[in-house]
Amino acid sequence: MWRLHYYALKAGRIDLVYIGHSGEVKNDESLFIGIAGLGGLKDKLVNGEQFGEPRRISWKTIMQYEKIEALDIYWYATHNDKFIDCPEILENKLLQKHIEVYGRLPKWNNEP
After folding, report:
1. How many domains in the chain?
2. Is pTM beyond 0.85 here?
């Protein structure tokens, strides 16, 4: 399970543009992470939809439109042998913290 952050480099500035997650904790507290090509992190990044299209297509379009020079994608494991943190709960906490600090959601979390 992963927590995701996307940062955009534009005109010498780096901005956090998206906070998301992949994977889930099921009702029985077991992990559902997915496997390559079937819902895992790679599938979410390559085939997951954002801006109404698969990211492999929409990112090129939005980067050109917004004049973004590069995207940095960071992911953080939310579990280990001793702890399991629900990635959706962590995402919601981080989004709330972003709102408290900046008064708004990250730009790409606001997509229509």
Report:
1. 1
2. no
